[in-house]
Amino acid sequence: MSDQPDFDHLDVDYDQFLPLLQGANDGLLAALATVPESGRVLDLACGVGEPAVTLARQRPDLRLTGIDISETQIEAARSRAAQLGNDGVRFEVMSMDALELDTGSVDAVMSRMGALMMGDPIRTVREAARVLVPGGRLTVAVWGTLDMHAAMRLGLRCLEAVLPAEQVPDLSVFDKLAAAGVREGILREAGLTAVDSRTLRWTFERADFESWWSFVLAIPGPMQDAFRRLGQDALGRARRTMAELAAPCRRRDGSYAFPMGCQLLSGRL
């Protein structure tokens, strides 16, 4: 995915994004239920260690390795893992497009919002296939079309309301990568079989409008950069636009429930 944020140098409270991804976590972890006892699991673009740490709590028998190119996020993941007291869990700085792992060394590969969206998707899946044992499975939860990501979709519409068209961030890559058959084709090209794709859906809740607006402004990447460049008048107009756009998701008690969705793809070596 182009214009990826530099996660090593962002002042971001990564934990605030974990509830946004809960539905993806649940679907991904359910798909990994068939990993054999004492199996070896690799988490690509593991970020701050979720859902890897949750998986380790559920299945302490597993030998789990999480990798990410961000030293900042790997340190956060290691801090989470230290609380487990499980020597079978480790996190390393490594590119998912050039894995420093032996061929046929893991039973399952997983990724949440990393593989098939960031880096080089074709190289990523080829590397995942290389390190899998025969019969091993790759399972990836990844953002689908922009319509499935309420925060990105509504945030983009706010920017469209206050910026000239040429200054609005181009997020079309969401729809291009999520087009029918594109990601499935990448898995098959890498030699994976029994390729499957389905949609996961869940609800992301916020206590009030201010917490929702603050959350949208905190999403790292080109959309956040555009919001930060706005003057006070334009930012105010964007905020009022968001209030109108979010109104259908407002509950009677003033809280909000936003529909979310992603793709869950899998394939077997």
Automatic annotation (TrEMBL):
The keyword Methyltransferase applies. One of its GO terms (biological process) is methylation. Keywords: Methyltransferase, S-adenosyl-L-methionine, Transferase. Residues 41-136 form the Methyltransferase domain. InterPro entries: Methyltransf_25 (IPR041698), SAM-dependent_MTases_sf (IPR029063). One of its GO terms (molecular function) is methyltransferase activity. This is Methyltransferase domain-containing protein.
